[in-house]
Design a protein that fits this description.
With 143 residues, the protein is α/β, with parallel strands linked by helices. The chain has five helices and six strands. The chain has a six-stranded parallel beta sheet with strand order 3-2-1-4-5-6, sandwiched between helices.
Length: 143
């Protein structure tokens, strides 16, 4: 953590299937402090019963929401919404305004990866990863 403690302080934006799975997994390690932000309260139903982190019902694109999540202490921010523009905006705020050391954004449109890269934001593209895995499976069978 930024304050010298072990483990990381992680903020996850979006509690869809991806965000909820990631938050639950990170929480189960018991080494990290996790906060999930989503606009919809029912989204938090996706979190497993073992989730021990915090939840905030709010719009993460608002600076005050990020401050309430204690973004100034965050080691990592992960934007996992289904909306590339939302993810990039929040990632830019986290990286440029709050100086979060590690910012990762879900990217549904692989063609936008260059923009994120130029901003120093790491990306994960489920579309590209899935395509590469399909390709690998097809080619390894050799049929």
């Amino acid at each position: 953590m930024r304050d010298g403690k072990s483990g990381k302080y992680i903020i996850i934006i979006g509690c869809g299937r991806l965000g909820a799975f990631l938050a639950s997994s990170l929480s189960e390690s018991k080494q990290n402090s996790v906060v999930v932000i989503d606009k919809k309260e029912e989204a938090f139903d996706r979190l497993g019963s073992s989730y021990s982190g915090f939840t905030i019902i709010a719009d993460a694109s608002e600076i005050e929401t990020l401050r309430n999540a204690k973004i100034q202490k965050a080691d990592v921010l992960v934007a996992t919404t289904n909306h590339d523009n939302t993810n990039i905006m929040i990632a830019q705020i986290a990286k440029g305004f709050f100086n979060v050391p590690k910012v990762i954004a879900r990217l549904t449109e692989p063609a936008k990866e260059k923009v994120y890269s130029e901003l120093g934001i790491d990306t994960i593209s489920p579309t590209a990863l899935s395509a590469m895995e399909f390709y690998r499976i097809i080619m390894e069978n050799g049929e």
